[in-house]
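Work Package 3 (structural annotation) set out to generate three-dimensional models for the target panel prioritized at the project kickoff. During this period the team completed the workflow that converts sequence records into discrete structure tokens, so that structures can be stored uniformly alongside our sequence database. As a representative example, we reproduce one entry of 248 residues exactly as it appears in the project archive.
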Amino acid sequence: MTKKKKTKRVKVKLSKFPLVSGIFISRPNRFIAKVMINQEEKVAHVPNTGRMGELLVPGVRAVLAWNPAPHRKTDYTLILVENNGRWVGIHSVLANKVAYEYFDAQSDVSELKQEVIYGNSRFDLACFRGAQPWFYEVKSVNLMAGDIALFPDAPTERGSKHLAELINAQQEGYRAGVVFIIQRNDATSFQANTKMDPKFSSLLDQCHNLGIEIRALSCDIDGVNIEIIGELPVSVSSEEILGKVQKP
């Protein structure tokens, strides 16, 4: 397990669109949620394909972005839900924005770019650190077992593909890393969810053995902003705590 490190605090707005409060009702499918807003039932987009069964519980408070547009099927996007008295972020793309702002604030990072094609993948970030070119893949985390953050919360073939491409990039002379953005403030460490996705966990272990950078950044959410507050210890295997994880 890597040790906890100090990190720069970076604060990002949850959305450029107006935020509204609501109550989560149900999730008819992966992409749609029913929510109560101002005592009216509305449909909202769920910007995360994970299961999130422990978070999307009927009756919990929610924060949504209001963004009506002709091309959208819904006017609302689910951003946060309350869990045990704290806000938890579920917008997976928001993790990419947080990671971008974090690296952009680092003194040794230059030429930072998003959505960069390499091989058969499109990496979330690419930059130079000093004179060395780097690729980074970013993953959004909100699953917890006790005080340990876990990823993934559902099998992710796409995630495994990205790790395999990071391994290829590292072997071809680039530097590579994977950054887990933990969208909640109550985790004390991060581990791979081996039972949920053994392939992803195995590839993450290979990344670790090859010297690929693996980082987990913890965030605090105040209902308007999300702020990186620290870097957590990382372990690539979570077999010893899997008994605490309940499948939704």
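Confidence is low (pLDDT under 50) at residues 238-248.
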